[in-house]
Specification:
about 260 residues; mainly alpha; membrane; cell membrane; MetI-like_sf; transport; MetI-like
């Protein structure tokens, strides 16, 4: 078997694994709702018909794009804050001892509860929605970064010290690279939280966005349109997950290669 054939078979296998279960769930949904007369559970064929009408026109620019922009802004800001604070807390025992009780206090507060509080000082614009996303996404990134920094191999740390590798070079080549698998794990967890908080933030005093539109459909009893919005959220989550996995495989190629080598010596 040639290398090209092996690569193609591997890609086909990965595609089947990624799309197999969603395809089964769609089939179950289709047949379970076929011929449904329930006002609140319309047939999937009706939902798909509304999907094309609702989300391929003006709403794509007025609702989907603003939601994705808020999601990207909040997620990236949470990544910067989480990794930055995680590096400081993970490398300093004193800072960790001082901040840990406060961090545990704020981490225990569900982000949706903070929405009314955030609205008091951030208003009801995009800033509020971005802050809500950050307030929930930052924790898995921060905590995983701290654990990743604390788990840096002592032998590698001593080696860097012996060769005089300090400052930014040590931070980049040792600390960040050693902690990167845990950082990426935290970012993967934060992605699903970001999507949830994006929708929740848009349900409060908003004038556009996916969350706002879905609630408006529900309040006006446009049930197929409402379900089409829920379906769109699921598809967006699935697409973002695939994109994240692609980026992870590129960034952590060395780590996955190392694990494969350890499993198959």
């Amino acid at each position: 078997m040639t290398r090209t054939t092996t690569t193609v078979l591997t890609l086909v296998r990965r595609a089947l694994l990624a799309l197999g279960l969603p395809a089964v769930l769609f089939a179950v949904w289709w047949f379970a709702t076929a011929g449904s007369t329930d006002f609140y559970v319309p047939p999937l064929s009706t939902v798909l018909g509304r999907f094309g009408e609702v989300w391929t026109g003006e709403r794509l620019l007025t609702d989907v794009v603003p939601s994705l922009a808020r999601l990207a802004a909040g997620y990236l800001l949470a990544a910067v804050v989480g990794v930055g604070l995680g590096l400081v807390i993970g490398t300093s025992r004193v800072v960790r001892d001082v901040l840990e009780p406060v961090l545990e206090l704020f981490r225990a507060i569900p982000p949706p509860v903070l929405v009314p509080v955030i609205m008091l000082f951030a208003g009801i614009g995009d800033t509020m929605k971005v802050i809500v996303i950050v307030s929930g996404c930052v924790w898995p990134i921060l905590l995983n970064t701290v654990e990743g920094v604390r788990a840096v191999d002592e032998v590698l740390s001593d080696t860097c010290r012996s060769y005089g590798i300090t400052g930014p070079s040590r931070l980049w080549h040792l600390t960040l690279r050693s902690a990167s698998p845990r950082i990426v794990t935290g970012m993967r967890q934060a992605l699903s939280i970001a999507i949830i908080l994006m929708v929740i933030s848009e349900m409060f005093a908003a004038s556009n966005g996916l969350g706002f539109t879905i609630v408006q459909f529900q309040r006006s009893f446009a049930i197929p349109e409402m379900w089409s919005g829920v379906l769109l959220l699921g598809l967006l989550g699935f697409a973002l997950s695939l994109l994240f996995r692609f980026a992870e495989n590129r960034v952590l190629a060395w780590y996955h290669g190392l694990r494969r080598a350890q499993r198959n010596p």
